[in-house]
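Q: Could you fold this chain for me?
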Amino acid sequence: QVQLVESGGGLVQAGGSLRLSCAASGRTFSMHDMGWYRQAPGKEREFVAAISWSGNDTYYTDSVKGRFTILRDNDKNTVYLQMNSLKVEDTAVYYCTPDIVHWGQGTQVTVSS
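A: Sure. Below is the predicted structure, expressed as structure tokens.
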């Protein structure tokens, strides 16, 4: 079983930055790719970014490329999402997952205009 705890969300003005964290436990974290997803009100959950188990490979949805960076620290069993140049349309609850089966409680990101 895996436990995931997301944190770091909040209210920020457009153009600002936030750094999300996802602390994982209960599984060999360093052996798994990790992903960030988000769900805006009234919309389906969508992929945002992913990182390979080694950290060498990263993937982003087109709308966040050049603005978001996914990182991981396997010694701390934590994956991060650095979000810069935030836009109103980035407003959503953000979730991390190793397998799109296990999810944390999410962290709310609200970007105001």
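A (continued): The first strand starts at residue 3 and ends at 7.
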